Amino acid sequence: MRISPDTMIFFQWGPVSLNATILFTWGVMALMVLGSYLVTRRLSAETRLSRWQNFIEILVNGMRHEIGEISGQVPGRYLPFVGTLFLFIAVSNLLSIVPGYHPPTGSLSTTGALAICVFVAIPLYGITQQGFTSYFKQYIKPSVFMLPFNIMGELSRTLALAVRLFGNVMSGTMIAAILLAIAPLIFPLIMQALGLLIGLIQAYIFAILAMVYITAATRAHRREGQANQQREKGAWKDG
């Protein structure tokens, strides 16, 4: 029983190797690019829309709504990044019904890479919203002695993102394999359906947590903007 697709080597030449994680990651990326092209090449603004366009609009509007509810900001700024995270993880997990396929999210290297993307995106969004100095002042509040603890908090949060997704996907694969050996006719079908549901839930949780962390990094800027708006309204009323 393979715990991770990293152990499945298809090609190796010296230190360079091609394992299942890399191969299936490329496959998911290619499928998403091809699917995006096929779905969006005939978009229409008419009243009668195709089923695929209806599905895409429902999906995008749903993601925009969730991002807006969490951040309290215009969702378009965060949709490309958070939406891509959700779609990549969801597609990777849903393809597990294909025989011979191993989800790359079952590899700690993949989940770690996704978590690192979130780790990098958080300060980028924070600096964009607040500026370099204002953002990094948060790491020394309420005292400069909190700097190492705040940095460790950021690192542990990134590690938790990676391990949570890896653990859930890997454990689901192992349980399905065990049940397949015990009862090859009934339980695998049930576990397969449950695994698909859990895969979608894990994609949703990962994207939501990423958005929560990004929102925390931009919250000070939003509060400052709201305070400025209140002051402007008060000055207008006084005038």
Textual characterization of the structure:
- By secondary structure, the chain is mostly helical.
- The chain has one domain.
- It has seven helices and two strands, in the order E-E-H-H-H-H-H-H-H.
- The chain has a two-stranded antiparallel ribbon.
- Strand 1 and strand 2 form a beta hairpin.
- The C terminus is likely disordered.
Short description:
This protein has 239 residues and is mainly alpha-helical.
What percentage of the residues does DSSP assign to strands (E)? under 5%
Structural class: mainly alpha
Mean pLDDT: 80
Overall helicity:
over 70%
Strand arrangement in the largest pleated sheet? 1-2
Major β-sheet profile = 2 strands, antiparallel
Write a concise keyword list for the protein shown above.
239 residues, mainly alpha, two-stranded antiparallel sheet, 2 strands, 73% helix, 4% strand, globular, disordered C terminus
